[in-house]
Specification:
The structure holds two protein chains of two kinds. Chain A is of the alpha/beta class. Chain A contains twelve helices and 14 strands. In chain A, strand 10 (228-232), helix 8 (235-248) and strand 11 (254-258) form a beta-alpha-beta unit. The relative contact order of chain A is 0.14. Chain B has a five-stranded parallel β-sheet with strand order 1-2-3-5-4, with helices on both faces. Chain B starts with 9 loop residues before the first helix and ends with a helix. The chains are: A alpha/beta, B alpha/beta.
Chain lengths: 349, 279
């Protein structure tokens, strides 16, 4: 939706359903606000804590940021290992090149910024200085997809589409605090460049209630279901699990396959689960419908002769609105109620 | 490298670098030969006066790192690497051929002695910051040399690198700017308005020198000053060079970023170069 700035100003009023926040009047949340719903269990700064702990036994780890230490939880690492922290200033191209140079010399840099700045401003530097050289740089980026209401300048809705086209680069989109803290040592154990989407601050904790462990390159079935299989990554796996619960009341049996590694895809598991007859496959992602997990799964299935009923829950191919996240998630169909509505509608048609 | 009395002079090294480059140009019938001839004196000083390395072990940990940001100058660096004994001389016959270790644009994974993949201009100096910080972490006394170009200074990332190097006081980083005043669309001073270039580096916290890059003695003094300065600053040497230096009929040709050389002119150029050899 694009606004006409010369139209009559909107009058403040009680807003409708209010999405997940439930507040009657929603305002744009602070840039670093938590994604957690009220009352949801959380863990503080799982990335910063996990990296600081890992660095105790991995002296080659260094942390770099481009003026977003606090906003990517790297400040935790900086405090624990001040001599291994490099503040590169507001210079994302320098950030990526410095990381590349240090990797060349045997260090393992974790470079943090926002996903928009990595994917858009520093892309050439990530592509050629890091990925083409297959260097051991871990790029960890906050504000993936639609996780801020600040508008397109901060909404990295196409980061995965950009990075999927980059050879050598592993792409990770973790769901919650548990996923993040387990992903950190896993991506460090992988010798090569990684792009990881990050939830920061007080990060929801969900997956500890499931028999789950993060394994790089593996998709995990979190719950089984006979009517629908949601294939999801990142925070959308949280929403998928909530949606599955919600749809149970309507006697719709929903399975959830969590795909935290988007590249390389766990082809065998996805093909196996999508091959089960009679299940609609719904791919859910916090990303534009263009070029993300949905298209990756669709291509994989088509190439392998698997053709289930297939739907996508994703952000539209548009520059998105500014506003409160719950409003926006509802508006663009990635809130739990919106997902449930979409799936019910597809099953009924 | 210490100069032994029976070793060739730097002028002789520069002559041979030019010769290797012309022979590679002849193989392909093209190449950035004007740049190679122009920068040969600087490379001779870098590889045969200033830098520490082991030809038989190009990845020796104690080596000075030479980062070629301007990937299209590969023909010049290959010539220097051949002269330095890092790449065998007969390999120049493969320059630019399929599966050669000497592709037209310099890439780290192809060529011994090539530290980085240049070519996406603007990356080299920023990469140097990473190398220099890493060497400091390792308490290495090696230097990082980065060769980039005047036109390249139009790239914003050069200035992110310049600013970062100044901020971190990277006194183990020596930038070399080839100021031949010729970029793709014309004279660099017109295309990107490069003036006050030295002042810009100084303002970013660099120890700055500007020399005639084809005056070997002046280049030697500049490299010595850069290496021996006690200032805790990154160093930059802006080298004014003459395109196609050493082959007068090419020097006089209409100035062009990609100098056109006719098939019969390569041998002529070699003969002119040989005739003008300084012994």
């Amino acid at each position: 939706m694009r606004h006409n700035k010369y139209a009559k100003p909107v009058r403040l009023r009680e807003q409708g359903e209010g999405g997940q926040g439930g507040a009657s009047r929603l305002t744009t949340s602070a840039m670093i606000a938590s994604l957690a719903a009220p009352g949801q269990r959380t863990k503080p700064a799982p990335f910063g804590a996990a990296l600081s702990a890992l660095a105790e036994t991995r002296p080659e780890i260094v942390g770099l940021t481009a003026d977003l230490g606090k906003y990517t939880d790297l400040h935790i690492f900086a405090k624990a290992h001040p001599d291994r922290f490099y503040q590169m200033g507001m210079s994302e191209q320098l950030l990526m090149c410095t990381a590349a140079g240090m990797a060349r010399e045997g260090f393992m840099p974790f470079a943090t910024t926002y996903a928009v700045f990595a994917a858009r401003r520093a892309y050439d530097f990530i592509c050629l200085a890091i990925a083409e050289e297959n260097l051991n740089v871990k790029i960890v980026c906050a504000q993936p997809g639609l996780t801020t209401g600040y508008g397109p300048s901060h909404q990295a809705t196409e980061d995965i589409a950009i990075f999927r086209g980059t050879p050598n680069l592993t792409i990770v989109d973790p769901c919650d605090a548990l996923d993040i803290e387990q992903a950190v040592p896993a991506i460090a154990a992988h010798d090569g460049p990684v792009y990881m989407r990050l939830l920061r601050g007080n990060v929801p904790l969900v997956l500890d209630e499931y028999d789950y462990k993060f394994e790089l390159g593996k998709a995990k079935l979190l719950r089984d279901g006979n009517d629908v299989l949601i294939v999801s990554s990142g925070l959308m796996t949280m929403r998928a699990l909530e949606t599955a619960e919600k749809l149970q009341a309507d006697r719709i049996d929903v399975g959830v396959l969590h795909v935290p590694t988007i590249k390389p895809l766990d082809a065998a598991t996805i093909i196996r689960e999508a091959s089960r007859s009679g299940r609609m496959v719904v791919v859910a992602e916090n990303h534009t419908i263009m070029g993300g997990l949905g298209e990756a799964v669709a291509g994989l299935l088509l190439r392998n002769g698997v053709a289930p009923a297939f739907r996508q829950i994703a952000l539209p191919d548009e520059f998105l609105d500014a506003g409160a996240l719950p409003t926006l998630h509802d508006r663009y169909g990635i809130s739990t109620p919106a997902m449930a509505r979409s799936i019910k509608g597809w099953l009924a048609s | 490298m210490t100069q032994l009395s029976n070793e060739p002079s730097l002028a002789e090294r520069a002559y041979r670098i030019r010769r290797h480059a012309l022979r590679m140009g002849e193989v392909q019938g093209q190449g950035y030969i004007a740049q190679a001839l122009g920068i040969a004196d600087v490379l001779a000083v870098a590889y045969f006066h200033a830098m520490r390395y082991r030809p038989e072990d190009p990845e020796w940990e104690g080596r000075d790192r030479f980062l070629l940001s301007i990937g299209h100058y590969a023909i010049a660096l290959y010539a220097a690497l051949i002269e330095a004994g890092i790449v065998p001389e007969d390999e120049l016959e493969t320059y630019g051929s399929d599966d050669s270790r000497l592709p037209m644009s310099g890439m780290a994974s192809y060529t011994p002695g090539m530290e980085i993949s240049g070519g996406s201009l603007g990356q080299g100096l920023a990469l140097s910051v990473g190398y220099a910080l890493a060497l400091k972490r390792k308490k290495s006394d090696a230097f990082v040399y980065c060769l980039f170009s005047d036109g390249e200074c139009g790239e914003g990332a050069v200035w992110e690198g310049a600013s970062g190097a100044g901020h971190w006081k990277l006194d183990n980083l020596i930038g070399i700017v080839d100021y031949n005043n010729q970029q793709a669309d014309g004279p660099s001073s017109e295309v990107t308005g490069l003036e006050a270039l030295a002042d810009r580096f100084t303002a970013f916290g660099w120890f700055t020198q500007r020399v005639d890059g084809n005056d070997i003695d002046a280049v030697v003094r500049a490299f010595d000053a850069a290496r021996n300065s006690h200032e805790q600053k990154p160093r930059v040497i802006i080298c004014d060079t003459k395109m196609a230096k050493g082959v007068p009929f090419l020097e006089e040709r209409e100035r062009n970023h990609f100098l056109r050389v006719e098939p019969d002119e390569w041998q002529k150029a070699l003969a002119v170069l040989d005739a003008g050899r300084v012994s």
